Input
Amino acid sequence: DSRNNMQIYTVKQGDTIDRIAGAAGMDPLRLAHDNQIEPPYRLAVGQSLLVAGGDSEEAGVRLGGFRIGNVQTGPVLVNGYAYPWIDEQILSETCMYLTSISIFSYGFTEAGELVPPAGYGEEDILREARRQAVIPVLVLTPLGADGRFNNNLVAVLVRDLEIQQKLIRELWTVVQEKGYGEVDVDFEYVLAEDRELYADFVRRLRIIMNLFGIRVTVALAPKTSREQRGLLYEGIDYRALGEAANGVLLMTYEWGYTYGPPMAVAPINMVRRVVEYALTEIPAEKISLGIPNYGYDWPLPYEQGVTKARSLGYREAVQLAIDHGVPIYFDETAQSPHLRYWQYGIQHEVWFEDVRSMYAKFELIKEYNLAGAGYWQLMRLFRANWLLADHMFLIKRGEAVI
Output
């Protein structure tokens, strides 16, 4: 099966699509399509390509890439978050590789009334999910009118049983009417004093939803110890929430973030620390690994409180390297690609994800027998990532088991 001849190849000086495809014994147009390379098919030195197919193992040896064996294990859950305005074609292609898709997001008022997602498109995602047997997930967030996570809203909810009951009733109605198969609770910056009450709310929601065959999951800030300090972590009790929900998503990204210093968004050494701590509190079969489908571009020099990075996708990052004639480097510790370029007299530093960094994350899922992966987010297509995931995992399709 030529599909089993899969390798990751890093572009060298003088390489062309034709030369790489020729060495692999495959169609150059297929190589370009898989890696989203458009005419005139320019490459960046240090760019990693997924070479999927080829005519033989010998051809793979000729190319000299990093060979990936046929490494499928048991069924893995693959989820991704999408805003309602996701591009129709991106949605259609991505759904081929998903167990479930999370629509971001429903909110709620202080009175416990459910607030639907902003804009149009929820119905389009639900329709495509049904067509491809992907489970739609209702995401519940405490987003205020300013679009930020509001821990006062969380406090009002978790401290009042009547408000919880009203919200759960409204959630159940929407889930039944629209055909959602799962509810994902994504509360961030929960106050330390609401730690136990928050877990109690998730447990109540899960008990009721499970009666109707609806799974309940919870997104967890990336902790590395039980008593970790900081507003993002103190209200999040891994053990209690792991017991309260059917599954959890570790939000293992945002080490590199908009207002922070330039660094990898999800350095594998830090991601591993979160996974290893989580496994002391929650069974592996309940844990999904969060994976970022984005990177950041920082203007230099970095100045705390002043510098603001812009978000970008894999293709944009590679295009910057091509346009500015700079190489892409790979940090072995973080297992993450990065580059620097100059524009209008300002130097920029970019960290992003490629097939090498994704491979490292997939290996971590397999090493610890985690339940699966959850992507933030699906708005940009990263085709090579999905082809790699499909090769490495037996992606669970259809019914998700409670």
User: Anything to note?
Assistant: DSSP finds 13 helices and 18 strands in the chain.
